[in-house]
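Late entry, evening session. Most of the bench is empty. Finally got around to the prediction I had been postponing all week. Sequence below, unchanged from the version circulated by S.P.
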Amino acid sequence: MAIDFQHGEYKNNIEAWKTVADICGSLSLNDYLIELNPADTSKDNALRNEQYKLRAVFYAVAGYTRRGMIGTMFQKPPIIEVPEALAYMETNCDGAGISIFQQSQAVAFEVVGKSRSGLCVSYPQSEGEASKADLLAMKVYPTIHYFKPEQIINWRYTTVGANSLLSLVVISETEEVEHDDYTVETIEVLRELALTDGVFTDSKWKKNKNGVWEVAESFAPTDGAGNFWEIIPFTFVGANDNAAQVDQPLMIDLAKINIGHFRNSADYEDSVWFSGQAQPFMTGVDANWVEVMRENKMYIGSRNLLGVPEGGTFGFASASPNPLVRQAMIDKLDLMVGLGARFIQANSAVKTATQAEGESSVQHSVLSLVAANITEAYTQCLIWSARYLNAPDTDIKYAVNQDFTNPTATAQELQAVVASWMQGAMPMSDMIAWQQKHGFVNPEKQIDEVTNELSVVDVPDLGE
């Protein structure tokens, strides 16, 4: 098996990932429009197709929805708890100045769109006391890198006893090569993460002058205690779970309907242009009368009287617009709304809390599952990073917000809750938790903080 071998599930899903990337990113849109009269290879038909595509209007519903879902997920900042040795993760988790918060948003962007991403903890090759000195000077430290699903071309599991261990991951990356004439060439590099005889090795493959893949460098990293790794510090991140199997892209159905809407839009705009071009006509005209019109400089749009011969007529012919195409666009908008699409709708009708909660429940359940998977993956990566540094990992935590509800309460409800507490029917902790949930008390405060603040305030008698 060659190093550039592509896993079967990868090949089965690469087109779907491209579709999601194109539609959500408004890229290569003309590739998704159907060619008019493909059997006609004339210049006129080529020009018509060019104008047909130029008039099409793309409504970026899928892309807006995807960005809105990420905004909802990260409306509250993630929670991170790490030992002091890993504090740098908050500002630079990948060695390039990207914080763990920013990187987790990029991972969420991939998972929400394509249901897949990957995280790997890396550590530079170093030895002995030099590595400790470099670590103290922050020259060498573990980093977390994320990968798009298109980059993870192959993977394999091996059964060891009762455990199924990830034994191979091949990742497609790029590398810039500088030449003497100031030019920069971008080449493909394959990174192989392999578990061989129970030892993890990190290898980089490049093509030689003959175009054949060969190992450029390879080493077996050791942890902070000097031990070789018996696992690959890599984890998949998915929409349903963090297993290796490929889930159907979350946005693929919405993207396909968005494509259909785009095609209807192209037909509709073409119909509007065609029917909007009024065609003047005259009846009862012969060659002599045409000459009379030219001599008297009678032409359409001159605001001068345009004469016609006796019994003749003059008028404009125009086609009726095609209502079927417009209705098809409206129907697809309804379908996209049903799939959770987000729109900015001016003057939209006010919805009850029950209606709003019902419409967003499916979307929120999907986001909650994605957030839980990202939380689990990053917590595991931080634990691996701590192992590289020989740091404690018992209290490590990274949590992405999973509560996307925006509860509201009336003054009467607040009064009823406070009255229940004052009457001894509700514990103070529950009252404070309710107020935090509904935005009356800062949710970042601990219960004890709020209790201490309340103890120095004269509580009014609600019966007054």
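Two things to note before I forget:
Residues 278-317 form one domain.
The longest strand covers residues 163-178.
Will write this up properly tomorrow.
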